[in-house]
Amino acid sequence: MRLFDMLHLLPAALSLLCPQELPQEGTQENPLAPDDIVVTASAFAANPLTEPWAISLVPTATLATTARTLSESLRGLPSVSVQKTAQGQSSPYLRGLTGYHNLLLVDGVRLNHSAMRPGPNQYWSTVDSWALDRVEFLRGTSGIRYGADAIGGVVHAVSNLLTPGAADASLQTSGMVRSRMASAEGGWGARLQQMQSGPDWAMQLGFTHKTWGDLHAGGSTGTQINTGYQDDFGDLRFVRRLDDDLNLRLNLQRVRQVDVPRTHKTIDGFSWMGTSVGSELWRLHDQDRDLYSAALDWGHGARERGSLTLSLHRHEERRDRARIKSDDFRNDRQGFSVDDWGLNWREERGLDSGLLLRYGAEIHHERVHSWKSEWRDSTGVWSDNIQGPVAADATYSTIAAYIEPSFDVGALTIEPGLRFTHVGLNANVVDFTPSAYTQTWDALTAGVRATFWGNNDSITWLSATQGFRAPSLYDATSTDETSVADSPDFTLEPEHFLQFEFGRKGGHGKLRYEVVLWHTMIQDMIVRSPEGSGGVDVLKDNGDGFLNGLELSAAFELDETWSLSAVASLMNGEVDQWTADGFELRKPVDRLVPMSFYSSLTHHFDDSDSSFEAWVWAVGRSDELSLRDELDTSRIPQDGTPGFATSGLTWSKVIRAGNTLTVSLENLFDKDYRVHGSGLNGAGRNLIVAWEVRY
Question: pTM of this prediction?
């Protein structure tokens, strides 16, 4: 189905949402806690129960104690699967998509860039979950407001709120020390955070160090050697109140990851249920990431608020691989660096007519450098390649603007949206013929969202939203050999998506629930199909397909101290793929996880200073394999990845004001399991002890 065909579906979707008088339900007490707010759905703080979006929030306690990385903190959320290529390389699949089809924001600044790989990658691990206040997951396509990459979902990592002191306030000092140890991960880490505030200003300085040893799996698998690594994270944040309605915010972050191994394709790997063992001697993926941003935030009550953010995101990746080929020792080192300058403006304005306008614009300009050198014992010298993983000297620019009005028609709220996007790619040095490549793409995307049967406690919505993504620098110029041998391709077309979504969420008494049914139409998605000897080389082309799923969430207060929650997801999807001889066929999308379930039982003791949680996590068998999955014998068994169920217990106690001890026991029965597509198995029985001191 071509783009103009997809556009024709939008009026049909809108006709389903035609204004009609709908009954209003009675007002009940909001079951959500007052501090449960989101900024991702509206770009500013909002109540998730009244937002017509599929929204998930990661609890602060999960980030502070049990979650090892940002990606893994999403485990158990609707339509999420977290593949772990290595301990330091995990990537979430959101509604069946991963890599650059999902958008990661850190305090409103996008971390996606044009050199990002499409498949599971390590980039999300550079965000320190211990420095965050919360993680918001906006599920589904939201390309009108957030642009390219916001297809499977948008994940927003939000730092803790930094509030200036009152005009007559004296100097105030506070801080926090947080530590965590885990037995099966052989890991420990600590974060030190210091904050000061004075009249009209506040500042925070933080540092985190984490060391991870070799991961110990359950059952007979045991220790998975050469899987440990370490990283360091530092941040400096400053806020200045310029007047009653205007704040200046500065944010500096730096993370460094050293000697991060990827072992499943090396001699340190192991065979699990028939998977193959690699022949490479070693493979290391190191990263440095810097983020600098300055933002102006303003607001005049609830009717007018906005932000203007200037940012510089710097990302450097280095890869080191050694192997023996034709009895010759070979060592190749490659990498890239990206400087992404961004300017983002967002605003919401309520008019006297009752119309709410959301609008904004953003500009990104990336400069990319890439390199690769190879050593062979037979020659005894290092030789430089024309380019590394991507074009050696390139720029990638994006200019976009959007508008989303919201207005009421009787009992119906309509939110149409329109976004214009211009993308320019200029690759000056490419290891291909021709050696230079320049291209531009323009797109106008639309969407509509309708809300009805809504009140303070419940809401129902229907939406039809387009997503657009132009070929990235990686798509067009990659010579990557991370998992397969890629090659430049200048014929690729932009990707288009159209997602339909029906949702209902609310609260009735002690019950809180959410039901979401979604369907994504895929047009011209860039698909990599394995070909050649052993499926090492890939054929890139644009393919059509679909994804759809069902998401169910519920939480129930059994009494004043006990509560029960559960999340279940079902999903399937197919996309065009090509055999080695060029034959086109329709196969399941990569890494498809058909079913997942997560449930927890929580008890808050009478003293209100301690709590207990028991949880179970179950994932169905993943045997619907793409062509790529079928040939990925180092990670996926021949008949697919078996389903599994694991469980755990968590106890938390406030020892005294500001001091909290948390003890968790994961994988109670020492289950040996693997998340589909992962390069190593999950942790075995794992004792986690976390301590937090605030002063």
Answer: 0.91
